[in-house]
Amino acid sequence: MKILSADQTRQADQATIQAEGIRSEELMERAATALSSWLMERVEPDEPGEIHIFCGPGNNGGDGLVVARQLHEAGYAVRVWLLPAPKHSPDFTLNRQRLPEELPCAELNPQKLPRLLPHTIVLDALFGTGLRRPLTDVAASVVQHLNKAQARVIAVDVPSGLYTDAPQPADSVVVQARYTISFELPKLAFLLPQNAPFVGQWHVLPIGLNEEFIHTSLVDTYYVDAVLLAGRLPQRPQFSHKGTFGHALLLAGSRGKLGAAVLASRACLHGGVGLLTVRVPAAGYDILQISAPEAMALTDPATDFVTELPDLKPYAAIGIGPGIGQEAATRDVLEQLLREADVPLVLDADALNLLGANRELLDLLPPDTLLTPHPKEFERLTEPARDDYHRLELLRNFARQRRCYCVLKGAYTALATPDGTLYFNSTGNPGMATGGSGDVLTGLLLALRTDQRLSPLDAALLGLYAHGRAGDLAAEETGQAGLVAGDIVRYIGPALQKLTTLPARL
Ligand SMILES: NC(=O)C1=CN([C@@H]2O[C@H](COP(=O)(O)OP(=O)(O)OC[C@H]3O[C@@H](n4cnc5c(N)ncnc54)[C@H](O)[C@@H]3O)[C@@H](O)[C@H]2O)[C@@H](O)CC1
Ligand SMILES: Nc1ncnc2c1ncn2[C@@H]1O[C@H](COP(=O)(O)OP(=O)(O)O)[C@@H](O)[C@H]1O
Ligand SMILES: [K+]
């Protein structure tokens, strides 16, 4: 899915209205109908208490008015509160007139804001994508009142006060919604950790915005779902052999962190690699052979950490980092690897920390290298970020400047490409916030970079998506708290299988 800016969202509305020859109020009716249906599926009409709908002066408020009318007609007890404003949008005014007379509707009085019992359902239709500046005066008081009330707030399109594609000034007043119900496409603001307290759980409801407009809109930010990945993972050919999928080299592990090497190795094997050789310190020989017998162990002369780079000739792709430590000799191995490798590289964990501590090595990164830092590792490679938007800018700039593919791990892991495009992953769950999940990702990405049939972009997108999907499937079995990194490995196969393009049926 594309992620549109606030301006493009408005243009998409206009394009839909023009292409379908409808009036703007009809599109508003469509959006509100989708939202009313969502609500009616979750709330019974006889649930005690009224649903309070807070409406602003623009089309977001207009949406709220239509939902109020529709819920009322369906037998729900509804009460509408209007924000005092000097002027209103035409569709607001129209739908204000369409409110049935018996439906309670009053203007908000800042001196006497309505009392809301805990758990009351509140619809926040104050402001949407038309917000131009932070909330002040009555609007700010109303939002502060809603936030204090412990009500069940459902934001219409956007939590009021939140900018959809830029950071708002510190201490801005923003609705803290439990749910945000948006239309057609997700908004960038929903994907950033700093906005989680406002957005809550978000859902996007389709309202049939003009496909042609969305298709031809130029964007540099995408939300990666199964549709975006369709056709990118080819089936394994009937007459394939292990050479078809390539031979990977993984350099990983040091004393006390050989589990990282094992997890990454097992993930690489389950990711479909043809052959895997793992360079571990001598202390890791038995551990690796027993825990990942399908991999070949190529032990280093040193007992506790990796000190020598093996001959690179046999390998189609190379991964380095999980649990490898930051000894000086290991740093030298990394430098030699960056100088000598002419196959795809995947850099993770301590390989990234070594790059951060020895920034001169960054100049040696071969083009199209894939780096997988979490935010702290990324900060070591670049600089501390002011906020999540700034961090994304740093990520784009890093990928452009270094001509690499750089991941920023977390919920909605982001991937920046050498041309500065951002992709946000849609799979995964908080159960994956557990030691070793990142090592599993590295192994899987190494397998996909070894498969010569995949472009660097497709390998990265498929790997991130399948890793999160495997985590989701694992969590169904183990629960989130019970999930450990090894569980993710067991579900890599099913996750990849689901993405595999099957031939069309006869
Ligand atoms: N245009 C359309 O056809 C559709 C619009 N939709 C809804 O329309 C919304 C966008 O509507 P609008 O563009 O009217 O914008 P909003 O309703 O978000 O707000 C615009 C109004 O708020 C005022 N305003 C902006 N910032 C303010 C601030 N800080 N303090 C006080 N007043 C402020 C503006 O002057 C304007 O009067 C979307 O979020 C969505 O909910 C949906 O109904 C889908 C269809
Ligand atoms: N809340 C979350 N939602 C989705 N994915 C998550 C969440 N927390 C962690 N993950 C995923 O788990 C992995 C953790 O990687 P990392 O921090 O490197 O762990 P480790 O270093 O322990 O292996 C990343 O791929 C990240 O995207
Ligand atoms: K809103």
TrEMBL record:
(6S)-NADPHX binds at residues 59-63, 128-134, 157, 260, 323, 374, 439. Keywords: ATP-binding, Isomerase, Lyase, Metal-binding, Multifunctional enzyme, NAD, NADP, Nucleotide-binding, Potassium. One of its GO terms (biological process) is nicotinamide nucleotide metabolic process. It holds the Pfam family YjeF_N. Residues 9-215 form the YjeF N-terminal domain. K(+) binds at residues 60, 124, 160. One of its GO terms (molecular function) is metal ion binding. AMP binds at residues 409-413, 438. It catalyses: (6R)-NADHX = (6S)-NADHX; (6R)-NADPHX = (6S)-NADPHX; (6S)-NADHX + ADP = AMP + phosphate + NADH + H(+); (6S)-NADPHX + ADP = AMP + phosphate + NADPH + H(+). Bifunctional enzyme that catalyzes the epimerization of the S- and R-forms of NAD(P)HX and the dehydration of the S-form of NAD(P)HX at the expense of ADP, which is converted to AMP. This allows the repair of both epimers of NAD(P)HX, a damaged form of NAD(P)H that is a result of enzymatic or heat-dependent hydration. Catalyzes the epimerization of the S- and R-forms of NAD(P)HX, a damaged form of NAD(P)H that is a result of enzymatic or heat-dependent hydration. This is a prerequisite for the S-specific NAD(P)H-hydrate dehydratase to allow the repair of both epimers of NAD(P)HX. Belongs to the NnrE/AIBP family. HAMAP family: NADHX_dehydratase (MF_01965), NADHX_epimerase (MF_01966). This is Bifunctional NAD(P)H-hydrate repair enzyme. The gene is nnrD.
